[in-house]
Amino acid sequence: MFIDVHMHEMTYSKDSFLKLDEIVKIAKEKGLGAVCITDHDSMGFKEYAQEYTEKTGFPVFVGVEFYSLQGDIVAFGIEDCPKERIPAQDFIDFVKAQGGICFAAHPFRNNRRGLEEHVLKVKGLDGLEVLNGSTSKEACRKAAEYAKRLSLFPLGASDCHVPEKVGVCVTYFPEEIRTFGQFLAAFRKGDMKPAYYKDGAYRILYSYSSPIDVNIDEL
């Protein structure tokens, strides 16, 4: 099952041009089984997403992309996020204290939003985005190398803000996931793999050693 684990909806991410209906429509067309809304520093979409899932039967899970003092971290399984920027380690500890999961978003993107070398200093991350639909292939390749070095789960996500980016990079989960509890449990198992969409189908990067030979900027 393929899930896009990092997406932005326009209600709470003001830099997004996407409404949930459009996200889901494109996701279904590409064969995704669920989507994750991870707005910037906000979990305000959570209640609406739950209602949408119940009404339509299509799973929409809500997390957050939190801008820590060292860079962006995506988290799931927390009730809310801090109201001000705090150090990355403090945010990771905050997530773990609530039993949540978290991963570094686009850790080596060249815009001062990734953790970069701080991924070597913090403790408690579950994974790294090694495929990000809005990040260069060089930065993605470096993230893959660090994920292997640190034994962190490798993830793929679109980080979409516009329609053409929905689902360009995603994460493959080997089991069927219908509930948020199942999503968290599957994530903790760590059997997922990053994947990218090309020529009407998803291609899975099977291992850390698989070369990232796709130009992410062209997806």
| Helix and strand element order | EHEHEEEHEEHEEHEE
- The number of distinct helices, counting runs of at least 4 residues, comes to 5
Number of domains: 1
Mean pLDDT: 94
Biggest sheet, spatial arrangement of strands: 3-2-1-9-10-11
Tell me roughly what share of residues is in helical segments: 25-40%
Largest sheet data: 6 strands, mixed
Total count of strands: 11
Regions with little confidence, pLDDT below 50 for 5+ residues:
none
User: Ends: how far apart?
Assistant: 20 Å
Describe, in plain words, how this protein is organized in 3D.
The protein has helices at 20-30, 46-56, 88-97, 137-150, 180-189; strands spanning 2-7, 34-37, 60-62, 64-67, 72-76, 101-104, 127-132, 153-157, 169-172, 193-198, 201-204. By secondary structure, the chain is of the alpha/beta class. The strands form two sheets. Strands 3-2-1-9-10-11 form a six-stranded mixed beta sheet. The radius of gyration is 15 Å and the shape is globular.
